[in-house]
Structure formats: structure tokens, C-alpha cells
Amino acid sequence: RATMKSLRFLSAEALVSNAELAKKSLAGVAHNLYPLLFKASYLLEQGEVIHDLVENWPLVDFNVGKLLGTTVDYQEDLSHRTCSVCLEGCLTGLRDYVLNHPSPYTKRLKVVDLTGIKDVEVQLCECKKPMGRWARTQLLSKLCLELVGYLQQTQCNPELFELSIDVLMDLFVTERNYELVVQALLKKCCCPLKICCVAFRSDNLSLQKFFYIIKLTEPSFLSKLEIVHNVRLEMEHLEILFSSIHFPLLTSLTLPARTFNVQRFTATEEQMLTTLGEKLGEMPRLTELSVPFSILTGRIQKLLSPLKTPLKMLDVSNCSLNHADMTYLASSCHAHHLEALDLSGHNLPDLYPAAFFKLLNHSSSVLRSLTLEDCNIQDNHVNMLIVGLSPCQKLQEFKFLGNPLSSQALKHLFMFLCELPMLKNVEFPVPRDCYPVNITYPLEDANLCRFDHQKYERVAEELNLILLQANREDMKVSTPLFGSYDAAVQETNSELGAYLIKSFKETLEKFTTSLNKMS
Asked: Mind listing the pLDDT tens digit for each residue in 339-348?
């Protein structure tokens, strides 16, 4: 559906559609019209005009999220368009803002906020070339180093060194861009553009490099920390991290798989877990915690009870929780505040149905996102699930891939889901009756695609018909066989794939060496 544009916005579009004319006209444009021209240029993907606007930005702040968000003149939110042409224009314009003015005293810009850009799966821009978080980190670091090099080599106005612009950024660092980002952070003091890391994500990085770069990010200002996948962080490393570095503003923490494994706990490690819980309690703003694929059997209370603030988001997928863990969660202060909950990989209906439904009931007034993948939810559990979900009137997202449900049970469940007024996104499993009779759950990766695709398409059509008859075309339903879209993983999958191949090769070589020694 087309979004209405004001006459002002239409006029702005007309001006920026001609890059040459726009460039000539900028000197005579009122300062308060720059935001309007910026959004119009972004919509039309006029990279040159965006560059020129940023290069001559007359205002104190430049907040991309606000500029591209809903505005009076054009209500459509463009902040999810990570268009390469537009973002490159923004960042190079920022560099040239520093360089291309006769007097630094005419510059008013103090803060640039790039944190409002949202990475999504479907890009609506015509170029179809997104610039993800990793690439934005790479380009900004490169431009900062270029600036430092230029200022050091050129006889430029010494007043330029007094210029200081904070650039708020969500950094994403892997092995491939590590050196560049480190150099940019080390030279921050002599660069007019000051990278201020608000959120930090690291993947495919050695522990030594992670510990070095995290200190350079000024962690006392970090609000979000994601340590994922190929960072081999274990509990003892986490204790060192939290003992040596303080994160007073941290609101969100994501830890890699297997950070915790209580199956091999000694008395020392039990004490270490207690200490870690206390360290989390020293983060007064922490409201989001993600610890997937750790083994935390019987230890959830020890980890979460010291927290000063109730959690709004909790991911304990595949954490081997037991009845005591679920009972604690259901009765804890967190239960009434959880807006997003992931309990995937737990046999909820058979092991602890009462505690699970109590947890669901306590969080129902605020719950927006619920993920129950591979939870052994079967046809005979659907009515119970419907009763549990009925109070969740604010639910916007429900994911339940990998559960052995028949097409008939799915239709029954969909008729109910249509009644949840705010539900917008549903990820449902391939029906069990589309797979061979001898298939077992949870499904192995090798069996995921071994289903009757034609039958699945027929069932999917029937489910969409249920939505249509209920006037719920606003709901997006899908079956992403290999999990939900992750923008960060998508952007760096070639590097991660190469890393996995290298790791596999090294393991084989060690195995061969061991065999040779034995023989």
C-alpha cells in the first residue's frame, strides 16, 4: 500500500531527483529542510545527493534512525533499507564534512548516530545490495584511518585537529576486519570522527584478539554485547572478562554455545558460576540474556537470581533445563516481565507442562515473541497449547519449527492464531504427514528436506486460506527449514564457512598425526 507524501516531500523528491541541480541549490536551502531532503534522497537512492547533504550538514546532530523513520511529510520508515549506495554516500559524506570546509568554526555537527539502521532479510531498495553491519564497521574504520593519514601528511588547517564528532555505531568484528577496526580504535584520539561503540558483536575471533579489542571499545559505554559462534569462550574466560572489565550500561548480553557445561562442574566451577551470577547482578540495566546451547541443568536460579532488574528477553534454548529450572523461572520476578522467550529444545509437554504454562500465564500480559522449536509438541498437545496462548494477546511472533504436528493439527492451531490480534509473524513446521512414516524427531539435518514438497504446498495453501477467511493477510507465515534469517550470519557466512573447513582440516591433521604416532 502506497504511503501518502506531503507536498513538501514531493517537492523535495523533485529537487533531489536531479543530482546536479540539487548540488547547485544546496547553498540556498534552509537548514531545517536538510532532513526532508535527506529522506527524499534515500528513498530515491540518490547516493551523490546524500553525500553532498552530509558533507554540508548544518545541524548539530545527524541521527540516521530518526531521519529515516516515520516523519510528518512521509510516514514510511526507511531505516530497514541498508542500501549500499545510500550508506556509502552517508559515510563518505561524513569524511568529506571534516575535510572540505574552510573553517572548522562553521561546523556545528557534534553527534552522528548510525545505530538506528535495521538489517532485514528483504531489501526494498532498487540496487538490492545491502550494506550490513559488518560492512558498515569496515567502511567507517577505513574512512577514519584515511582521515588520520590525510591530516598527518598534509599541511591542513591545524584547527581541524580540534574538531570532534562522536559517531555512535554498532560494531561487528571478525578475523577478516579485526586489524582495520583495531587500528581505527587505537587512532581514535587523533581522528576528528570518534567511533563510539554502543553495541559490539564478535564472531570468528580468537580469545586473545577478543580480549584485546573489547578493551579498546570503551566497554563502560557498551549497551549490547554479542559473543557468538566461533569465539571459544568458556565459563573461566567469562569470569576473567567480568572481573577485569566493568559493563555498567550493558542491557543485552549474548554468549556463545557451550559457554556453560554443568556436566563437568567441579566445586571450583560451582563457585565460579556463583561469582558469575553476582557479576551479572552488578549490571543494573541488564534486561536481555541469551545463553543458547549451554548445559545449565539445575543452575538457572544460581545464574539469574542475583540480577537486580527483571529480564525482558531470555534465550535458554537447548540448555537441558530440568523441572527445578522451569519451576524457578515460572515463579521468579522475571516471569512477569518477559517480552521475548526462547525455550527451544526442551520437551515441554511431557517433562514440566504445569511449570511451563504457569510461566506462559505470568508473562502473558507483556509477551511479544515466543520460540518453541523442537519441543516435542504433538497433536494431542495442541488444545493445551491453545489454552496456554489464549491470554497472550500482545504476542507478535510465534515460532514452533521442528515439532511433530500433523497438517490437521496445524489447521486447528492456525484457526486459533488468527484470533491473536497483534500476531504478525509465524514460523510453522513441515507437517509430520509430509515426511516418511519412519522419520524420527527431533529431525536430523540430513532428513529436513526429505518430505513430500507437493503435499506441503497444498497444506501451506490451506493454512493461508484460513488466514484469508479470517481477514488476517497481515500475518506472515513461513517454514524456514534451516532456521530464521540472521542478517549477521548471512553477511559473514563465506568467512565462517572457510573457518569451519579450516577447523575440520586441522582436526583431521591432528587425528592423522596421532594415528601415525600410535603405529
From this structure: 999 999 999 9
